[in-house]
Amino acid sequence: MNVSVPKETAEGERRVALVPEVVQRLTGEGLEVTLEAGAGDGAHHPDASYEEAGARTGDGFSGDVVAKVAPPSAEEIGRLSEGSVLIGFLQPLTAADTVRALAERGVTSFAMEAIPRITRAQSMDALSSQATVAGYRAGLIAAEELPRFFPMLTTAAGTVRPAKVLVLGAGVAGLQAIATARRLGAVVSAFDVRAAVKEQIESLGARFVELDMGLEDAEAAGGYARQLTDEEQQRQRELLADVIGQMDAVISTAAVPGRRAPLLVTEQAVKNMKPGSVVVDLAAETGGNCELTEPGQTVVKHDVKIAGPLGLASTMPDHASSLYARNVTSLLELMVKEGALNLDFEDEVIAGACITRDGEIVHEGAKKAAEAPA
Ligand code: NAD
Fold it and tell me: Out of 138, 310, 318, 342, which residue is the most buried by the measure of CB atoms under 10 Å away?
C-alpha cells in the first residue's frame, strides 16, 4: 500500500501531513510513502530527510491513501484517483462544495475533524493537537502586542504590576492560552459555559470567572458546548463587558462546532478596556468572538489592539506538523492490516470520520450541510 503526501497549496499553509519521523515508522510497518518534492519545506523538513526515512519523491496524489493537511482545492480533487482514500482537514460541516466534489470523484474521504473524541482516538485528535499550537501562539501574541509587562517585576525603579488576562472559552486552545499566559507571569482568569472546565482552569493556576447567567451547564453531546439562546447570549455579553473592562488582554477561543463563533466581546466591552489593551480573537476563523474583529488583521479600535489571526497552527509549522503527522499515522494504523488497506466500517472511529464513500456523502452532518440551500 502506498501513502502519498502532496505539497500543500492553500495560502499561508506551511504544514505537511507526514514528517520524516513517522515516515520511518510507516515504512517500517511495510507501507510505501511517496512525497511530492518540497512538501516538507515549509515545516523545515527537506526532501533528503524523507528519503533517509524511506520515502521516495513523486506524485503526491498517486497513493492508495493521500494524506493532506488543508482541504483539497477543486484542482487537487481532480488529481485524486477514483477509489483512493483521502485523509485531511475537510471542514465537513462548512465546505459543502468540497464534500460534494469528493463524493462525485468517488473518493473515500476521512476528515480529521470528524474523528470521534473518544479516549481510544485521542492519539488521532488533530483538532486538539492543532488547537494546542494555536492557543500557545495566541498567548504569545497577546504578550507581544501588549505595551505592558505580563509578569510582576520588582525593580529599582519600583514595582510593575502583572498583566490581567482573561481567556474566554477553555477548550483545548483556551487551556493552552491560559497555561502560556501563566508561564509568562500574567494573572489569568477564564470563563467557559461548560461547568466541567472550572477545575481544569483552576488546576492551571487561573481563576474561574463566575457569571450570574442563570445557566446550569451548557455542555452538549461529545463534550462540546451547546449554542446558547439569544437571551443567554445577550446576558453573557452584558456581564462580560464589565469583567473585560478590568483586563489588560483578552484571548477569546469560544466556539460551537459547525456554527458561527458566539459574539462575546462587544464594542462597549472594548471601550471599557484601558487604552493600549489587547484582544486576541482566536475565533476569527469562524466569524470572531469580538464584534470589532477583522479576520486576518490586527486593527486598533478605541485605542485597543484587536488581533484576528487566521491559521495560527501554520505559523508554528514544525511542531504543528509533527503532532498532526502523529495523529494521521495513528489513524492510518487503524486502516491498515498486514501492509494492506483494510477499512473496517464497523469501527466507530473509521465510520465516524468517513465523509464520502462509494460516490455518496455518508457523514450525517456533512450530508445535511451539502443538502442545505446555498
Ligand atoms: P471548541 O473549540 O469547540 O470550543 C472552545 C471552547 O469554547 C469550549 O470549551 C466551549 O465550551 C467554549 N464555548 C462555547 N460557547 C461559549 C460561550 N458562549 N462562552 C464561553 N465559552 C464558550 O472546543 P474544543 O477545544 O475542541 O473542546 C471541546 C470539548 O472536547 C472539551 O470538553 C474537551 O475536553 C473535549 N475533548 C475531548 C477529547 C477526547 O476525549 N479525546 C479530546 C479533546 C477535547
Answer: 138
